[in-house]
Predict the structure of Secreted protein.
Amino acid sequence: MSPVGIFFSGVAFLGIAAALLLQGRELRNQREELAIARQEQIRSSELAMRQLHTDLIKMAIEDSELRSVWPAPAPGHETTRKDHYCNLILNLQKVAYETGTIELQELRSALRFLMTSPDMRSFWTRSRTARVSVTADDEAEDTFTAEVDAAYAATIAP
């Protein structure tokens, strides 16, 4: 084999190796992009579900017949418009925190402020147990519940 042939064989081999390295890098980038897209799709689905939940609660606030469909927050208590409104306010804080709109310290401050409301304290007192039973073993819900509990405990009832 001539030196020119060996040279071109070597260059061809290096070209193939470089192409394989570039393809591998491109595949890794595509996997990362797919993972990001999947996470965004999950977040979008969660937000859509939360919006549906919000819409349902709004309907119950506006219509007493629909409000009666929701279970009572605690035995012996009727579900009121204020209960649904308090639920919406707490869900707003949770979504704001989970989407990164507010930081943990802002969430804590907001919850402490909210717990100065007699209606909010009453709602949390009555609904906490039922809420926890529905969201058991959901890490995000457990974290949020712990934050609301801490704000409730740290705030002096008016």
Observations:
- The first helix runs from residue 3 to 62.
- The chain has six helices and no strands.
